[in-house]
Design goal:
Distance between the termini: 53 Å
Low-confidence stretches: none
Radius of gyration: 18 Å
CATH architecture of the largest domain: 3-Layer(aba) Sandwich
Shape: globular
Order of helices and strands: EHHEEEEHEHEEEEHEHEEH
Amino acid sequence: MSFEIIDVNLDNLDEVGLFCKQSQKKEEGYQNKITWIKDRFPEGLKYKILKVKERNKYFFRGFIEYIPSKYTWRGISADNFMVIHCLWIVGQHKGKGYATKMIQHAIDDAVTLGMNGVIGMTVEKGGWLPNKTIYEKMGFQHVDQFDDNIGLYAKILNNSATKPSFYPISSDYSEEYSKGIFVVYSHQCPYIPALIEDIKEFAKNNRVQFQSKLINSASEAQNWAIHPYGTYGILLNGKFFSYKPGMRKKTVEALQSMT
């Protein structure tokens, strides 16, 4: 067998671990994610890792994370849908059908549970979310658009269901967030703490005000967040700046150019 898709759960989490930051398990972000995911399993979260054979050894080369829409940590309004939080296939294994197989797991689970469908967020350019092509190939339809870059696609399993949509994002932020850097974050992504430390150091060195808010619940991520990504975002002087928690160097460079 050349590959395996491992269903990570409470029974094997400590043994298998996570896909992201797998070589940095002692870091704060990894440990935060472990705690977060243990709390999500009872809510129906699924976390599956792609294990591929290379040179007679097996390596982790991708993963998918999805959860019922009631408990999603994305700014998506949907009734009884499965929401894909993350989908990532790395390196030479892209374009070999692994992403399709992993999305099919989400569809199969939604069918088994009698759900209305499956949802995925997409990005046109800039990365960190899948391109729409993978979803279109699997029969997902475009149901909403946040801006020129972020789309929402759904595999509809019940034609009478209300189509999912993004929650409205207000541009009228309170005065306390109108100056300096304001970061909204959660423990859903293990890359966030290291990025926040970089941003805090940048703010200190450049005498820029820094504030942050921890998102503690799915409800907050759905209804309060400053971007549909829900679990993370940056405001700069009251205006939206970024949602990409993995782009540490680029984020700091961009802040430098705008302050």
